[in-house]
Design brief:
about 600 residues; alpha+beta; eight-stranded mixed sheet; flat; excision nuclease
Length: about 600
């Protein structure tokens, strides 16, 4: 049923389309609300398929009258961002890159990181795509120029300075220890860093680092080295270009569902960063110029507006958008399509990046689709009742029973969920017994899952044959858990499915996507187990009881542990057995025996 639109005025404003449940499904703006809304309910031959689908769902139309078309544009952008209606072009990945803000418009300026750039008279540098070196640089500036970092109000009452003053991190303007003029000059010296004038300070820091190194003050030298690295990293984010003005370069690539947007930030003639964002098409599928316009309207609501915005194609309401941006920035703003020279070259580079982002997105989507197909095949091959969307894989790694570690990896929807990986240091098993170790790890994992009532996996994969599978199943039965479990033996890539009477062997062709999925989980659990084992073994080799015995350095300790496999075996070795190790003299062997004998006496 067509909604009543007879009372909609012939004035500028914003209209809100609603469905039968009173949900806002589309928001638009118009110079004449009456004319624009009426167009939706006239002939649909010029409408896109999405627009026709939207019109069929419209049950009511609300509107807000504004004083001008520019005011309508601003209100539309705010309402779209707040409500995110289904049929509007929606800005996704709406992240803000960090800026460095210097409050030069205050009596005692501060320098800090912000994600919002306002037209407030402060100095802004950025945006930066990597915040870590920026933080390191601010920390360095705090140490070198002693600039205030706290939020303490400075009211001339001579407050007691904080700890930063006493450790030479601040001049304490709150205490009147420095005049406003001297403090401002100090801040402006620091500002030079963010203008790219870093060569002098880097040279000075390198000299200080060398001085500390020669004095064997290695911690101080390392701290200065980190400052130098941060400054260099900050400089690397400022790749020189041929321009002299500030501009944002906006390029797009699109498929049937998404517009991929690439922004290059040009500041003071330098390309200081880029951003990858995306839009859903909304009701303007295929109209890339309109999509670019919608992006500009949403993005620059709270992003800094440069004097020039470069786009691929002319946008439909260019003059209106320029008027809004100019009012927002309180200066002239231009939207241009570059035709030649360096700006055209930069636009082509941005277009190439947008295309690459789209292709990478397609590859990821293809990976997800292939993983889903593999899981469907796996469900059928193993006769599972549900799709194995959550798979947990287990493996054991040890050398002669020492430093034994169990690993667990998690795959969700066929994709590794690295943050959910776990490793288990074997606690109850002595010597070489992979079966008992597997039983311990599985029991520990699911005892905790059962106690905490966490979601259990759809499938458990054991790296190993019938022995490991039987051990793992024993732990599940002990815990009274019924979770599908299979093993995958490396030699023939046969799938072991435990049954009450005898194990079933499932043989899939090597071209099977289901088998490839199990192999990926198995190989990942093996890799994680080996890496966990190496970390544990390295820690043991680098920190052991042998370190307390005079005459045993890193190489002799490694030789002893490789020969005897454990401290326990060394503890009970004779002098003759110890001298059989390369590099262990009779005198040193006697010292080792005496050390452990004294230890036993002390413990009696």
């Amino acid at each position: 049923m067509r909604p009543d639109i007879s009372n909609i005025p012939d004035l500028p404003g914003v209209y809100l389309m609603k469905d039968v449940s009173d949900n806002i499904i589309y928001i638009g703006k118009a110079k004449s609300l009456k004319k624009r809304v009426s167009q939706y309910f006239q002939s649909s031959k010029n409408h896109s398929s999405k627009t026709r689908a939207m019109v069929r769902k419209i049950a009511d139309v609300d509107y807000i009258v504004t004083e001008s078309e520019v005011a309508a544009l601003i209100l539309e952008a705010n309402l779209v961002k707040k409500n995110r209606p289904h049929y509007n072009i929606a800005l996704k990945d709406d992240k803000r890159y960090p800026y460095v803000k210097v409050t030069v418009n205050t009596k005692f300026p501060k320098i800090f990181i912000t994600r919002r750039r306002l037209m407030d008279g402060a100095l802004y540098f950025g945006p930066y795509t990597n915040v870590k070196p920026v933080k390191q640089t601010l920390e360095m500036i705090s140490q070198i120029f002693r600039i205030k970092r706290c939020n303490r109000r400075i009211d001339g009452k001579g407050k007691r300075p904080c700890l930063n003053y006493h450790i030479d991190r601040c001049y304490a303007p709150c205490n009147g220890s420095i005049s406003p003029e001297e403090y401002r000059n100090n801040v402006m010296e620091a500002v030079k860093f963010f203008k790219g004038e870093t060569s002098g300070i880097i040279k000075e820091l390198q000299e200080k680092m060398n001085t500390h190194a020669l004095a064997q003050e290695y911690e101080s030298a390392a701290a200065i080295r980190d400052h130098i690295d941060a400054l260099k990293s900050l400089s690397q984010q400022q790749t020189a270009t041929a321009g002299n003005d500030d501009s944002d370069i906006i390029a797009t690539a699109s498929d049937d569902e998404t517009v991929f947007v690439q922004i290059f930030y040009i500041r003071d003639g330098n390309m200081v960063g880029k951003a990858d964002l995306s839009l859903s098409w909304g009701d303007v599928t295929g109209n890339i110029a309109r999509a670019t316009e919608e992006f500009i309207k949403q993005y620059y609501q709270d992003a800094p507006v440069p004097p020039e915005i470069l786009v691929q194609n002319p946008i439909p309401e260019k003059e209106l958008v320029i008027k809004w941006l100019s009012e927002k920035a309180a200066r002239s703003v231009q939207i241009q399509v570059p035709q030649r020279g360096n700006k055209k070259r930069l636009m082509e580079m941005a277009e190439q990046n947008a295309q690459m982002t789209m292709e990478q997105s397609h590859l990821k989507q293809n990976d997800k689709e292939q993983a889903l197909q593999a899981l469907l095949q796996l469900r059928d091959a193993l006769s599972l009742s549900i799709l194995p969307a959550h798979i947990e894989g287990f493996d054991i790694s040890n050398i002669s029973g020492t430093d034994a570690v169990g690993s667990m990896v998690v795959f969700e929807n066929g994709i590794p969920a690295n943050s959910k990986y776990r490793h288990f240091n074997i606690k109850t098993v002595k010597g070489i017994d992979d079966f008992a170790m597997m039983a311990e790890v599985v029991k520990r994992r699911y005892t905790r899952q059962k106690a905490e009532k966490d979601k259990l996996p759809d499938l458990i994969l054991i790296d190993g044959g019938p022995g490991q599978v039987s051990a793992a199943m024993g732990s599940l039965k002990e815990l009274q858990l019924d979770i599908p479990l299979v093993g995958l033996a490396k030699r023939f890539e046969h799938i072991i499915v435990p049954k009450d009477d005898t194990d079933e062997v499932v043989i899939l062709p090597h071209t099977s996507e289901a088998l490839k999925m199990l192999m990926r989980v198995r190989d990942e659990s093996h890799r994680f187990a080996v890496s966990s084992h190496r970390r544990r073994r390295t820690a043991r080799l680098s920190h052991s009881e042998l370190d307390t015995i005079p005459g045993i350095g890193a190489s002799r300790k490694k030789a002893l542990l490789n020969h005897f496999s454990s401290i326990e075996q060394i503890r009970h070795a004779s002098v003759e057995e110890l001298t059989a190790v390369d590099g262990i003299s009779k005198g040193l062997a006697e010292r080792i025996v005496a050390h452990f004998k004294q230890e036993r006496v002390a413990n009696q």
